[in-house]
Amino acid sequence: MTGIDRPRIEAAVVEILAAIGEDPSRPGLTSTPSRVADSYAEFFAGLGRDAVADLGEPVPLEGDRQAETVLLRDIAFRSVCEHHLLPFTGVAHVAYLPGDTVIGLGRIPRVIETLAARPQIQERLTEQIADTIEEGAAARGVLVVLDASHACVTTRGPRQTGSTTVTVAARGAYADATARAELMALIGRGAE
Fold first, then answer.
1. Most buried in the list 87, 90, 168, 184, measured by CB within 10 Å?
2. Measured distance CA(36)–CA(107) in Å, rounded
3. Residue 64 pLDDT level (bands cut at 50, 70, 90)
4. Is this prediction's pTM over 0.90?
5. Residues labelled catalytic
């Protein structure tokens, strides 16, 4: 992707305002097209970015022992649902079982940020995070759990303001139900 086309977004917002019966030249709305373009530039900054590159170079482990599970809990994220262009926000929990290398802990939130900054659905986002970490870290296992609240559910239609959606993706060693259950218990302890 070559980047955000701000003038085109601004023109589209003017059209939307007119289409809902508003006057786009009204004092409270004159800067709205520019503000929406700013928001979209941020919301969709992940388009065209390589999430695997966000992992950086893996660091080789010393000695002949392999590392045990690495678990990051409660990584805040936000994305925009591709069905209604409304936000969804939540937390990600990511575990991986390193092979011969490890990745910097700060790299995992970068991957999530890159993949979430695209028009998304939560199910695909969960899978993409797992695939990226499995590929980029050469992990023996990956588990990704996303727990998010969707504006398309909380503010329109059924308006279920207290509901969240949980999605899970497991790869490698964590595809095993027993290994996954142990990690889910560790994730759950973070909510206490």
1. 90
2. 29
3. confident
4. yes
5. 81-84, 122, 150, 152
How far is residue 87 from each of residues 25, 40, 43, 120, 131, measured CA to CA in Å?
26, 11, 9, 10, 23
Query: Domains plus CATH for the chain?
Result: 6-43 (1.10.286.10), 57-189 (3.30.1130.10)
Q: Answer whether 82's CB lies under 8 Å from 121's CB.
A: yes
Pairing relationship of beta strands 87-97 and 141-150 according to DSSP bridges: antiparallel
Which contacts qualify for 168-171: CB closer than 8 Å, 24 or more apart?
168/126, 168/143, 168/144, 169/126, 169/127, 169/129, 169/130, 169/142, 169/143, 169/144, 170/130, 170/141, 170/142, 170/143, 170/144, 171/130, 171/131, 171/134, 171/139, 171/141, 171/142, 171/143
pLDDT digits (tens, 9 = 90+) for 2-40: 589 999 999 999 999 999 999 999 999 999 999 999 999
The Cα–Cα gap between 81 and 44 comes to 11
